[in-house]
Design goal:
This protein is α/β, with parallel strands linked by helices and about 325 residues long. The chain is about 30% helix and about 25% strand. Helix 2 (about 65-80) crosses helix 3 and helix 6 (about 225-245) runs parallel beside helix 7 (about 265-275). The mean pLDDT is about 95.
């Protein structure tokens, strides 16, 4: 059957990240505040994770509030008017209200109505996933400018007596504005998942279990050794692949910005990748903690603030986490 030929869109040939914004929890929580319930010590936490303090949000500060603050900074620094942003993606696992999406609320708060807006859940790989989507949607013509945010209030899903993950977690949000570019600013992503290891890190029960009185409030748990081995061995391969598909070598990098999961994982990564001394490595975990989807943009924001000379350089960003999902790409730093 014949029919009229449909229009299809084509967008910008290339994209780049214009700016970063950040918001951390307003409360600094030292290791000493957490060691009692897990029968541990400041020394043990520092040796195992590299964390000295983590930032958490007060009871009346929600993940959506952190997302809004980070978004406002990113927009202000981007040179793009909020009204021009027609896509908002928030990567999060801690929106305690199933609907509406955090993204729709933030789009309205920052003046980007009626942008397409949705939340995405890829845990600690969420920021990488969202950047990959924004890049593809802009290049397809489905969007022109995107606001991408990783936002978490993980203190809402922490059991203070849990020794596997609770002391790692912090609260915060990191945001970027992405738009068209004259040259490639976001390399192809290497992303994927391994659901066969879904039990290695995730929630210990469901909301319906909690409702029915068969479980406590769901909180995050992990099998530390399983996750550590997977992160160090499998994710180092993904990081190498991301460099290959970008067409560069470790020596071309200005910065390496892995998900801030654990300082030992970050150190092992650097060894496996044989990064030259000239490559700056993000270590924001020491004072921010593990903020899941927010960790990469928060760590990048701090690195750029401390080292403005990184602007225009190449950074390898890699996220990995629950559901054993992963995403990595090389980006040009704004």
């Amino acid at each position: 059957m014949s029919h009229p030929i449909l229009n299809q869109t084509h967008g910008a040939e290339f994209t780049r990240i214009y700016s970063y914004g950040a918001a951390r929890g307003d409360v600094v929580v030292p290791n000493e505040d957490l060691i009692g319930p897990i029968d541990s010590s400041d020394e043990w936490i520092q040796q195992r994770t590299g964390i000295i303090t983590r930032t958490r949000a007060s009871a009346d500060v929600l993940a959506v509030d952190l997302a809004t603050d980070a978004a406002r900074e990113a927009i202000a620094k981007s040179g793009v008017a909020a009204g021009q942003i027609d896509l908002v993606i928030i990567a999060t696992i801690s929106n305690v209200q199933q609907t509406p999406s955090m993204a729709a609320v933030v789009a309205d708060r920052v003046g980007s109505n009626p942008a397409a807006a949705y939340d995405t859940n890829a845990a600690c790989a969420g920021f990488s996933y969202a950047v990959t989507q924004a890049d593809a949607l802009i290049r397809s013509g489905a969007a022109h400018y995107a606001l991408v945010i990783g936002a978490e209030k993980l203190s809402d899903v922490v059991d203070p007596t849990d020794r596997s993950i609770s002391f790692l977690l912090g609260d915060g949000a990191g945001a970027v504005v992405i738009g068209p570019s004259d040259s490639p600013g976001i390399a192809p992503a290497v992303w994927g998942s391994d659901g066969s290891k879904a039990d290695a890190v995730g929630m210990n029960s469901t909301l319906t279990d909690f409702r029915d009185g068969t479980a406590e409030w769901p909180t995050l748990r992990q099998e530390g050794q399983t996750v550590f081995r997977w992160a160090v061995w499998d994710m180092a391969k993904v990081a190498k692949q991301a460099l290959e598909v970008a067409g560069i070598t470790p020596a071309d990098l200005a910065a390496f910005i892995p998900h801030q999961a654990n300082m030992r994982i970050i150190d092992e990564f650097a060894k496996q990748l044989k990064l030259p001394e000239s490559v700056l490595i993000a270590r924001d975990i020491a004072t921010t903690g593990n903020t899941s989807a927010a960790s990469i943009p928060l760590a990048t924001h701090r690195l750029l603030a401390e080292h403005p000379e990184l602007s225009g350089g190449l950074a390898l960003q890699i996220g990995f986490g629950a559901g054993l999902v992963f995403g990595a790409q090389v980006v040009v730093l704004p």
